[in-house]
Amino acid sequence: VDFSLTDEHREWQARCRRFAAEAIRPVAAELDREERFPWEVLRAAREAGLYDGGLLMRWAADEHGLMAAIYAEEMHWGCAGVALALGASTGVAAAIAGQGTPEQVEEWLPLLYGEGDEVNVAAYAVTEAQAGSDVSAIRTTARPDGDGWVLDGEKVMIGNAGIAEASLVVATVDPSLGHRAQASFLVRRGTPGLEHGRPYSKLGVRASCTSEIVLRGCRVPGDALLGGREALEGRLERARERARDGGSAAPRAGGGSSRVLALAEITRPLFAAGAVGIGRAALEWAIERLESLPEADRRLADEVVADVATELEAARLLAWRAASLARRGVPLTGAQGSMSKLKASEVAVWAAGALMDAVGPAAASADCPLGKHLRDAKVFEIFEGTSQVQRTVIARLQRELHAGAA
Ligand SMILES: Cc1cc2nc3c(=O)[nH]c(=O)nc-3n(C[C@H](O)[C@H](O)[C@H](O)COP(=O)(O)OP(=O)(O)OC[C@H]3O[C@@H](n4cnc5c(N)ncnc54)[C@H](O)[C@@H]3O)c2cc1C
Predict the structure, then answer these.
(1) Please, are residues 170 and 260 in contact by the beta-carbon 8 Å criterion?
(2) Nearest to 227 by CA among 107, 99, 109, 124
(3) How far is the CA of 383 from the centre of ligand 1 (A)?
(4) CB neighbours of 100 closer than 8 A, spacing ≥ 6?
(5) Would you say the CB of residue 87 lies under 6 angstroms from ligand 1?
């Protein structure tokens, strides 16, 4: 096991860190206060080569699988809300690159980021009011209609809803087959029947935009189906065979074999790296602040600093390990992705709170950034699978490993 960074990693880390320090940090507090989407930062990131389809290629070329985790940590160190705004398009791009046809990759990838002066964002719409942790409960339907599909349903808590040029919408094509009949559809902004609500006012990650998506008789062409019709028919046939053989269509609680959940195990290390970035930002600020404490008070503060630094390092290693395994195509059967997300998000929340205690009354000032870090970190315990759900997944996979070894 060797996680020492290569020269290329270090150069990338320095470049991301410089951008976060110069382009994100100076506007972070204002964007957070005003709940304003950071279009200007996205434009600057594009100019700096940190917001375009080249990101995926850079990450794919990294045999160690650490480039994306480094990017996530540094951007979140700058501001978690801005980092989410920056990250959504790449999440959708990864899904299209992994599951789409070559034609879909060619057509849609440039749209996600925009080209030339145009800066776009994308949305990945899975969650519904009754289907958050349990994605098998998705009710949004996709009905074949001539050579296309008609989508109907309502999505909630969707990042970039309403401002996304392209939305990847998960729907079921046959509710009787449960999660196995789910498919993803690419929907262009302005498509008739695609509507959105007002952005939610949020506790944390306030520079990001989160809203509802409503699909009412939203007709999309046949090539909007991610991966194409043939691949879907193959999956449906296998699902019907299983159902005929008496296999359950319902996945196990908190995780299972659905494509959405399998993808989540791979993307979770990046959310973990993001949470580490928030925790590191809190730690660095507190270290500077605590310098001015009288010597007698410093010992107690040092204990907190030491514990936070140690926990952050442990969380970072879990994130890097899971990212590295995923890059090498090793199945994350030990729930390594979920472990990293669980650990890092809980460490970030705890770290921000513990450092506030160490700093004392100054932490209650509106100028103190620790409150923002705490609010931002809390969101990481909720999305991409709540902490409870990560524990459910980890426990189940550990039981399976134990049964397999016995
Ligand atoms: C800022 C933000 C941005 C988001 N962006 C997106 C996005 O871009 N796209 C998208 O699709 N979604 C997005 N989400 C939604 C997010 O993924 C869901 O909120 C999350 O999956 C939890 O679902 P839920 O809110 O419906 O909670 P529920 O699933 O209803 O859970 C409620 C409570 O029950 C617990 N619980 C549920 N199931 C179990 C179980 N099996 N065992 C133990 N406890 C359980 C949960 O831990 C939680 O405490 C976002 C959410 C937030 C907060």
Answers:
(1) yes
(2) 99
(3) 5
(4) 108, 226, 227
(5) no
DSSP string of 381-405? Answer: TTSSS-HHHHHHHHHHHHHHHHHHH
At residue 252, the pLDDT reads 47
Task: Transcribe 321-348 into DSSP letters.
Answer: HHHHHHHTT---TT-HHHHHHHHHHHHH
Predicted pLDDT at 251: 47
The arithmetic mean of pLDDT across residues 257-286, rounded, is: 86
How many angstroms separate the CA atoms of 91 and 72, rounded? 12
Query: Distances in Å between the alpha carbon of 50 and those of 43, 112, 122, 191?
Result: 10, 14, 16, 29
398 touches ligand 1 (CB under 6 Å): no
Reference 25, options 91, 74, 89, 94; nearest CA is: 74
Does the CB atom of residue 159 touch ligand 1 within 6 A?
yes
Do residues 82 and 76 touch, judged by C-beta distance below 8 A?
Answer: no
pLDDT tens, residue by residue, 369-393: 999 999 999 999 999 999 999 999 9
Choose which residue among 32, 210, 349, 386 to substitute to test ligand 1 binding: the one with the highest number of ligand atoms within 8 A of its C-beta.
Answer: 386
pTM of the complete model:
0.94
Confirm or reject: Cβ of 392 under 6 Å from ligand 1.
yes
How far is Cα 22 from Cα 78, in angstroms, rounded to an integer?
9
Query: Is the C-beta atom of 257 inside 6 A of ligand 1?
Result: no
